[in-house]
Write a structure and sequence with these properties.
Blueprint (H helix, E strand, L loop, with lengths): L4 E4 L3 H12 L4 E4 L3 H11 L5 E3 L3 H6 L6 E4 L5 H11 L7 E4 L5 H13 L3 E8 L1 H7 L2 E4 L3 H14 L2 E2 L2 E2 L9 H31 L3 H11 L7 H11 L9 H4 L9 H12 L4 H13 L2 H7 L14 H34 L5 H7 L11 H10 L10 H23 L5 H14 L5 H12 L12 E2 L10 E2 L1
Parallel strand pairs: 1-2, 1-4, 2-3, 4-5, 5-6
Antiparallel strand pairs: 6-7, 8-9, 10-11
Helix pairs in contact: 1-6, 8-12, 8-13, 8-15, 9-10, 12-13, 13-19, 15-18, 15-19, 16-17
Bound molecules: 6-phosphogluconic acid (6PG).
């Protein structure tokens, strides 16, 4: 029993994590349900570090030094439960099982509680960065018990991405906190991808620019405050020419966005917590709309734009779109962080939002320059109620506002869908409104269901006797 850590599940993510650990000097036990896969990884990469391949679970657990640490990297859901049981039944008090898959945080909470009863630590860990990230340095978000982090943290910090010498890994919070923040990371990823998509669509439909020309504009934007991995990826995709047809590749790809569910989880959970994540929600629904062939076919030929689009000042318009993109993205992040705050409150997690933004600066899919500013904002005020209210970000919103309004209204007049640009602007206008029509909704609820309302000038719950003309409200 001499391995520092073990990885079971030798898919691309699992084997790359194992290779990353080995490259960083850890002795890694490896295992897969079908042992041929383990053999394959060992044959191809065995020379990269110290590996102990095992044909079965018994040997795998036996090869781990105590307290044992075993990482599971298999499909979320039932397969993960099955592997947990295989491990747990062979482990001893104090051992640590780490789930690095994209598991739903409520599953993680359930598993953590069950394994705690058996004296085991269960650490639901968010890992972001795709295949390359897993191999060369992902962003790692471990939950579970603080004690488990003492054993696990140093290894994870070492193999994670580093920015300015700081690891992109930190202890997030108890039980499901790690998987929760990874889920919201993915929701933000959806919104970020969608706002870039909206900017692309607008530039194409208004100015008739080619994908390659838009790639050049995005490459320029990527040098400034929009500097991010997703922007960089978008430039690459838009520049790609299809070898078969010589057309821009993006024109050959079917325009139906797929999803594996983490965006939907973020929205479902936000609904449960009562947090408006309009940006993530609209981004998720936009994928749904794109993947609704029957509805799209039925709507082909529907009347469209109210005006012909002749942009007078092209440079100014491009700058407007850039600012609208930045402001909308900011709103989506602000909302995502609110969802994490609400969950921390509901589940008793002590999540350091500044530290979270810090470990998202590198390794993960949403890594971006402006996360530095998010870190600064939450470090300055850990309980900041609204990220867009931080003075640095607020200044940028104010600066972007005229552009944002022009872009959303022009897009609307010309029939170009901008679900995240427009809903983010509505969120901004909603949250800054002194009075909202919610007062009328409360009146309606009280009218038809005696649901009561609160008054601006008195404490308590009130009900109006609507049918009895003019009768004053009564305290409920
Ligand atoms: C990451 C990614 C990863 C996954 C995406 C894809 O952080 O490394 O988010 O987890 O590739 O979530 O998700 P969809 O298939 O739903 O777009």
């Amino acid at each position: 029993a001499s391995a520092d850590i073990g990885v079971t599940g030798m898919g691309v993510m699992g084997s790359n994590l194992a290779r990353n650990l080995a490259r960083n000097g850890y002795k890694v036990a490896i295992h897969n349900r079908s042992s041929a896969k383990t053999e394959e990884v060992y044959t191809e990469h065995g020379s990269e570090g110290e590996f102990i391949p095992s044909e079965n679970m018994e040997d795998f657990v036996g090869s781990l030094s105590r307290p044992r640490v075993a990482i599971i990297m298999v499909k979320a859901g039932a397969p993960t439960d099955a592997v947990i049981e295989e491990l747990a039944s062979r482990m001893e008090e104090g051992d640590i099982i780490v789930d690095c898959g994209n598991s739903l945080f409520t599953d993680t909470r359930r598993r953590e509680a069950a394994l705690k009863e058996r004296g085991l630590h269960f650490v639901g860990t968010g890992v972001s960065g795709g295949e390359e990230g897993a191999l060369w340095g992902p962003s790692i978000m471990p939950g579970g018990s603080p004690q488990s982090y003492d054993r696990l943290g140093p290894m994870f910090e070492k193999i994670s991405a580093h920015v300015d010498g700081e690891p992109c890994c930190t202890y997030i919070g108890a039980d499901g906190a790690g998987h929760f923040v990874k889920m919201v990371h993915n929701g933000i990823e959806y919104a970020d991808m969608q706002v870039i998509g909206e900017a692309y669509d607008l530039l194409r439909r208004s100015l008739g620019l080619s994908p390659a020309e838009i790639a050049d504009i995005f490459a320029e934007w990527n040098k400034g405050e929009l500097d991010s991995y997703l922007m960089e990826v978008s430039v690459e995709v838009l520049r790609q020419v299809d070898a078969k047809t010589d057309k821009p590749l993006v024109d050959v790809i079917v325009d139906a966005a797929a999803q594996k569910g983490t965006g939907a989880w973020t929205v479902q959970t936000a609904l449960d917590l009562g947090v408006p994540v309009t940006g993530i929600g609209e981004a998720t629904f936009a994928r749904g709309l794109s993947s609704s062939p029957a509805q799209r076919a039925a709507a082909q030929g529907f009347a469209g734009e109210a005006q012909e689009w002749n942009v007078e000042d092209r440079e100014a318009f491009i700058e407007d779109v850039r600012k609208a993109l930045y402001a909308s993205k900011l709103v989506a992040y602000s909302q995502g962080f609110n969802e994490i705050q609400a969950a921390a409150e509901a589940y008793g997690w002590d999540i350091n939002l500044g530290a979270l933004a810090r470990i998202w600066r590198g390794g993960c899919i949403i890594r971006a320059q402006f996360l530095n500013e998010i870190t600064r904002a939450y470090d300055a005020d850990a309980k900041l109620p609204l990220l867009i209210g931080d003075s640095y970000f607020y200044e940028r919103i104010v600066d972007a506002l005229p552009s944002w309004r022009r872009v959303v209204s022009q897009a609307t007049l010309h029939g170009v869908p901008v679900p995240v640009f427009s809903s983010s602007l509505s969120y901004y206008d909603g949250v800054r409104s002194e009075r909202l029509p919610a007062a009328l909704i409360q009146g309606q609820r009280d009218f038809f269901g005696a649901h009561t309302y609160q008054r601006t000038d008195a404490e308590g719950a009130f009900h109006t006797m609507w049918a009895e003309d003019g009768r004053a409200e009564v305290q409920w």
